[in-house]
């Protein structure tokens, strides 16, 4: 998951080429720790301490990770973080009006989901980026043995910035699928049906149509549904996992997002050594990620 994101980030920044992925060189520059990875790393450490952090703590982690950042921050997330920062500083006027909201957020105690919903409504309910999906992918690795808790954590993480129903559906589907992959309960496309129970028609249709479309026909344009569909399609290929990821990223689109989502799926399906060891050179904060990976309990098949 993190390796896939780092590969995508390096491709996005131009410090890595597709040729480098097959013949990696020692001079490749490490990508910096992006806001997304900074947040995932901070949240992982919190989860490992026991109970998940409360809403106030998550709000602070989000602010610390994304404030004053310009690197790979989606417009929806950037807008929500800006409103959150303004709400926490009473002397700084809010950067939007809340004419459509019954209750304005209290500057001393802002409600993050309400801020996210306001940004979504201001976009005429068109904002359906992939930021919420990327952050919620962490939940299955900590709650795979607790389906109800997994759903709660997934939706809470997504709704922090992306309350669009399509975003929530995509995140919930991805969490369910990752759980099946981690528990070795997925073998082929027909097993995916269980992950689509209660999921809206937009995400359902995208996933159900995936086997009928070649990877070259997909258009991962940053929209959460197309990104999810393209990442899911890599599970249905027959190449080694690293070649599947390369083929997906060659479709262009949002390299870091596709790398993270497809990397999570392929890593869960094939295990921690799904990708070449040489790719780990592109992993920022690698010692911290490896420590977290070795701390997580092994999945136990549910009865």
Could you explain the architecture of this structure?
The chain is built from 15 helices and no strands. By secondary structure, the chain is mainly α. The protein starts with a helix and ends in an 8-residue tail after the last helix.
TL;DR of this structure?
With 303 residues, this protein is mainly alpha-helical. The chain contains 15 helices and no strands. Helix content is 54%, strand content 0%.
Topology:
Elements: H1 2-13, H2 18-22, H3 35-48, H4 55-66, H5 75-87, H6 112-122, H7 131-136, H8 139-143, H9 147-159, H10 165-182, H11 201-209, H12 224-233, H13 241-249, H14 255-270, H15 286-295
Helix pairs in contact: 1-14, 3-4, 3-15, 4-5, 5-6, 9-10, 10-14, 11-12, 12-14, 13-14
DSSP helical segment count: 15
Q: How much beta, percentage-wise?
A: under 5%
* Unreliable sequence segments: 91-107
Q: Find the structural class using helix and strand composition.
A: mainly alpha
Distance between the termini: 27 Å
> What's the overall average pLDDT, rounded?
85
H/E series = HHHHHHHHHHHHHHH
- Number of E-type strands: 0
Percent of residues in helices comes to 40-55%
Largest sheet: none
Radius of gyration using CA atoms only = 19 Å
Categorize the overall geometry: globular
List descriptors.
303 residues, mainly alpha, 54% helix
């Amino acid at each position: 998951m993190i390796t896939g994101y780092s590969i995508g980030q390096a491709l996005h920044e131009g410090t890595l080429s597709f040729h480098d992925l097959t013949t990696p060189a020692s001079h490749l520059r490490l990508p910096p720790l992006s806001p997304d990875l900074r947040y995932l790393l901070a949240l992982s450490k919190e989860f490992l301490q026991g109970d998940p952090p409360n809403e106030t703590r998550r709000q602070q982690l989000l602010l610390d990770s994304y404030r004053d950042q310009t690197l790979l921050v989606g417009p929806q997330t950037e807008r929500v973080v800006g409103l959150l920062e303004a709400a926490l500083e009473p002397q700084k006027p809010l950067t939007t009006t809340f004419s459509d909201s019954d209750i304005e957020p209290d500057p001393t105690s802002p409600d993050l989901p309400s801020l996210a919903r306001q940004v979504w409504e201001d976009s005429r309910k068109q904002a359906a980026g992939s930021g919420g999906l990327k952050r919620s992918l962490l939940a299955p690795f900590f709650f795979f043995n607790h389906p109800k808790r997994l759903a709660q954590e997934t939706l809470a993480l997504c709704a922090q910035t992306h309350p669009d129903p399509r975003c929530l559906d995509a995140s919930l589907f991805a969490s369910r699928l990752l759980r099946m992959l981690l528990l070795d309960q997925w073998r082929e496309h027909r097993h995916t049906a269980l992950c689509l129970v209660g999921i809206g028609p937009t995400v359902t249709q995208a996933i159900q149509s995936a086997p009928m479309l070649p990877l070259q026909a997909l258009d991962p344009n940053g929209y959460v549904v197309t990104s999810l569909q393209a990442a899911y399609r890599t599970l249905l290929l027959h190449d080694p996992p690293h070649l599947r990821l390369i083929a997906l990223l060659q479709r262009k689109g949002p390299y870091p997002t596709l790398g993270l989502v497809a990397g999570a799926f392929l890593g869960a399906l094939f295990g921690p050594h799904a990708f070449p060891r040489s790719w780990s050179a592109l992993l920022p904060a690698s010692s911290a990620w490896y420590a977290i990976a070795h701390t997580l309990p092994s999945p136990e098949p549910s009865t």
